[in-house]
Amino acid sequence: MDAAEEFTQWRRMRDEGLAVPFGWLSLSSYQWLPEVPRPLDLVPGVWSADASGATAGFEVWDSITTPDGDPVHGTLAKSLHEGESMHFIRHGDTLVELGVRGGRYMIRTRERTHPRLKAFTGVPVFDHDPTFIVPGRYTAFHAPKVVPIDSFRSDTRLRTELVGEVEFELAGHRASLAASRNADGSLTLAFRDQTNGVQTAPRRFVTVKDPGTDGDVAIDFNRTLNYPMAFSPHAVCPAPVPGNRLEVPVRAGELMPR
């Protein structure tokens, strides 16, 4: 199988992953939990949160279940760390996600029958172009750097841990992108480029395999992905650090969704 065929297969898996019943296309709300218990939109119960965690209270007639479908009522409490999320409860075709972002507890509702999910026919992409597969060199920082970053939401600041930089040449221009490391050892390169807001979403990212000890990597910009914010207004999504801006148009990877 050549690179173009592998790309086609990979794209099919990407679209299938987005189209799952309670995936990113099913988001229907994003709500901060209040300090004083009160009802929220789209879900039953009375909700609140403080420094010790989140609390939600339900009556029997609210017809609340666990994510697996077991009936529950009374008071549910949960404490999470920054950046964590979990499937908390279900109410019919609505799955409620509980999480912590920017030091605050939130819920997101996910609708199995959301119109966005029903209308999805795949993410548009640039044609596969082998010139956007480039070699790079990873250099680790002496120690990881934890830095504050913006997010898709104006009311939420996040933090990211940068572990090093990847240097490469693209379209005759030397460039470098700061990288974060994933659990499997791969690196994520979040970036902006000159196609943003015209052909592509405001920011995108590409993942490269674990560079190992020699630091050599291959960056396949054909596999550049949109953040969930490109599909839903109820996403958070980190912004690239200010230096991660490419001065050339990256006409590869995912386009702005229809």
Number of helices: 2
- Tell me the radius of gyration: 20 Å
Q: What is the N-to-C succession of helices and strands?
A: HEEEEEEEHEEEEEEE
Please summarize the sheet with the most strands. 7 strands, antiparallel
Alpha-beta classification: mainly beta
Number of strands: 14
The strands making up the biggest β-sheet line up spatially as: 13-8-9-10-11-12-14
Instruction: State the end-to-end distance.
Output: 30 Å
Q: Give average pLDDT, whole number.
A: 95
Unreliable stretches covering 5 or more consecutive residues: none
Global morphology? globular
Strand percentage lies at 35-45%
**Helix content bin:** under 10%
Q: Any chance you could write out the topology, listing elements then pairs?
A:
Elements: H1 3-18, E1 27-32, E2 46-50, E3 53-58, E4 74-78, E5 85-91, E6 94-101, E7 104-111, H2 115-119, E8 133-149, E9 158-170, E10 173-181, E11 187-191, E12 204-208, E13 216-220, E14 225-226
Antiparallel strand pairs: 1-7, 2-3, 3-4, 5-6, 6-7, 8-9, 8-13, 9-10, 10-11, 11-12, 12-14
Summarize the structure.
This protein is mainly beta and 258 residues long.
Description:
With 258 residues, this protein is mainly beta. 8% of the residues lie in helices and 39% in strands. It has helices at residues 3-18, 115-119, and strands at residues 27-32, 46-50, 53-58, 74-78, 85-91, 94-101, 104-111, 133-149, 158-170, 173-181, 187-191, 204-208, 216-220, 225-226. It has a seven-stranded antiparallel beta sheet with strand order 13-8-9-10-11-12-14, with no helix packed on it. The chain is globular, with a radius of gyration of 20 Å. The protein starts with a helix and ends in a 32-residue tail after the last strand. The relative contact order is 0.15.
